[in-house]
Amino acid sequence: MGATVIDVAKIAGVSRTTVSNVFNGRAKCSEETREAVLSAAKQLGYTPNMAAKSLVTNQSHLIGLLLPSYVDNNTLTGSPFYNIILDGMYSVLREDEYYDLMIFCIPPQRVLQDVSAWMDMRNVDGIIAVGEYERSFLDELDGRGIPVVLVDNYALNGWGHFSYLNSDDTRGGYLATKHLIARGFRSIALCTSTLDSPISHKRYEGYRQALQEAGYQEIVLEKIHTPFEGGLALGEEAIQQQVDAAFCTEDMIAVGVMNALLRKGVRIGQDFGLVGFDNLNISAQVYPGLTTIDQNIFAKGAIAAKTLLDILKNDALQGSRFILPVVLVERESA
Amino acid sequence: MGATVIDVAKIAGVSRTTVSNVFNGRAKCSEETREAVLSAAKQLGYTPNMAAKSLVTNQSHLIGLLLPSYVDNNTLTGSPFYNIILDGMYSVLREDEYYDLMIFCIPPQRVLQDVSAWMDMRNVDGIIAVGEYERSFLDELDGRGIPVVLVDNYALNGWGHFSYLNSDDTRGGYLATKHLIARGFRSIALCTSTLDSPISHKRYEGYRQALQEAGYQEIVLEKIHTPFEGGLALGEEAIQQQVDAAFCTEDMIAVGVMNALLRKGVRIGQDFGLVGFDNLNISAQVYPGLTTIDQNIFAKGAIAAKTLLDILKNDALQGSRFILPVVLVERESA
DNA sequence: CTGAAAGCGCTTACAG
DNA sequence: CTGAAAGCGCTTACAG
Questions:
Q1: Which residues in chain B have Cβ-Cβ distances shorter than 8 Å to A103?
Q2: All domains of chain B, ordered by start, with CATH?
Q3: What GO molecular-function term can you cite, just one (chains A, B) (predicted)?
Q4: What is the DSSP letter of A95?
């Protein structure tokens, strides 16, 4: 609130250097000195000022979290995915009170340049970036020289400061489609926003592979929109095309499809098989429950944070690529 | 990235004071000097370092956001409420690139003392606190001398640095219950986690008032749990008690109740009337759609942020109390 | 309209 | 094991 290292030094009867040393465990010092400093600090309610500390050490202990934009600008609201991944990150950061997260939601109008200036201004020690970004922006990120953890980004290697974290998207698509086939469905559509997104494309590849193995035909239904609303439209489409099952590349799309079908009186699980991807809370909350691919988003957030912290503390190397396993969670929809 | 005020001064051929003046619009200066400084800054890619700035001005341009704990520690995942309110806050902060948010999720084990030290360390300029807190912690918050905006907190007045933001919870409870009565339901339960929470209690008061006016009996069903799981149990309870309608104090509870009832073959909307509170996205995504009380959470977040910024800029006074209107959104569940 | 000097609260070689 | 001194990048009276 006000006490500085000088106040503590005065009361403890030592120099500021010693106070600093005690707090940072730098130089050895006698046990008495240590205790004198600590008790003086406690008495004064002393807390080191990060701004001052940051200025001299050039470490802000701040992590920048980059989140992609959404159609309607409300990144967080758009999908529960972000909640969960944030909770995962905080679960790790909490144990390391030292590091704080600063979120940069990047809406379409906000030029990436602004974001860059922002990171300069706050002097972030590291970055976690979720989703896909322009190549030139990635170049710039890498150019900062600080560690970056990329989550759900399928950019190829070649940068020195990036580490990658993905789910096994292809396998997820494969497992989902295999399950629908095993359940006896024969006309299985893929419902997605757009296959232009690398992540959707990976999931599509798994879908295609499973269909090929079974000798079935692929039916790709795309609809660019916010996930739920897109799903609503895709549900109508699925009925028109007379497919009897769908693998959706996101749970929220599946929830939209389900809603559209229930409205038409289709019995989900019997007449129509539906599998999502993510295992968001909502997939267990709708009725009938949604069968889906669990990608453990919470762990993803935790691992992203852990990876970055380890690199910052020189406990890990940059450049790793980590792929999280996925698993099918069977509920009532297929 | 590296350029300092000195580098800029050198290139522009002026003193650091002048550079600082130009950037902060402090003293008047000739147009030529201004341009020289600006172009030098641009050339060098200069961005003022917040840590240094903060150290001398004693303003961090950091806002601390306090979020309450959840049963399972995963604050954000627990309810989509937080997404939306965050989006609302960011919508305001984005226009004011200068301010950043730092989130403090407060799980049960994290002593409030730690949080306090944290705010000291980061030297936050202001605080937004969502939910209820211990009286002693509120005392301490007020004692910091920085502005605090309390959201969904029903603590009484008496502190000098607090401003309050609430929804019209009582009216919401009243509207919801009135609606169920008008729909012809006669045995209307209130489903909630606990009436010990002031916010639930306010909603309960509206419920009670409406019932009294109609001469109906109140039936309070409580279940302390995460909202959805609690709702599941409350749904069972509602069937046993043979009530024919329920007003739930949160949408997520209502979603749980709905799930439990659908599972028993109850036709929601016809056999059973259900009204929630919040108007989360999920209330429009489940089938049948959930009738609910809209409290415009996005606006709540935006207003909270705006209120704090205005106070920080001396454009507004502390101590205001703002109550947001609520409105009933009719869907299919009642 | 512009600049020299002091200082914000801390850490970091360096000397003792 | 401990301390005096310089310095991190900025702003702020104050003088001119």
A1: 90, 101, 103
A2: 5-48 (1.10.260.40), 62-167+298-324 (3.40.50.2300), 169-294 (3.40.50.2300)
A3: DNA-binding transcription factor activity
A4: T
